[in-house]
Design brief:
single chain; 117 residues; Alpha-Beta Plaits; two-stranded antiparallel ribbon; 33% strand; Dimeric_a/b-barrel; YCII-related domain-containing protein; YCII
Length: 117
């Protein structure tokens, strides 16, 4: 079994939606059910949602000095909102899981294998 990261790609405006919002409640419920299914299937490794991109800090120690900057590394229209790390036998199996994940959280999902997968 290889490991893959399923990245949830979101518009940063999703962080403006209250957790009390009915649609948000439905997404959290659907995502929680998917997590339970992945655990039962043996595909689950780890998952997590990320805080607002405004809370990001970037550290760059590639030059002569360490540079710490508030905010994300890149200014983009979309950002990483959360992720799953899963195990699956092949890309076809991952595609099926990613389709379920996209449906549950109502967001786009990017699939990337870990090096050596």
């Amino acid at each position: 079994m290889s490991q893959y990261m399923l990245s949830v790609i979101v518009d940063p405006s999703v962080y403006d939606i209250s957790t009390e919002d009915m649609q948000a409640q439905e997404q959290y419920g659907a995502t929680g059910r998917l997590n339970d299914e992945l655990k039962a299937e043996g595909s689950w490794v780890f998952a997590g949602g990320l805080a607002n991109v405004d809370l990001a800090t970037t550290v760059d120690n590639t030059g002569a000095d360490i540079v710490v900057t508030d905010g994300p590394y890149l200014e983009t229209k979309e950002c990483l909102g959360g992720f799953w790390v899963i195990e699956a036998p092949d890309l076809d199996a991952v595609l099926k899981i990613a389709a379920r994940a996209s449906k549950a959280c109502e967001q786009k999902i990017e699939i990337r294998p870990f090096d050596g997968a």
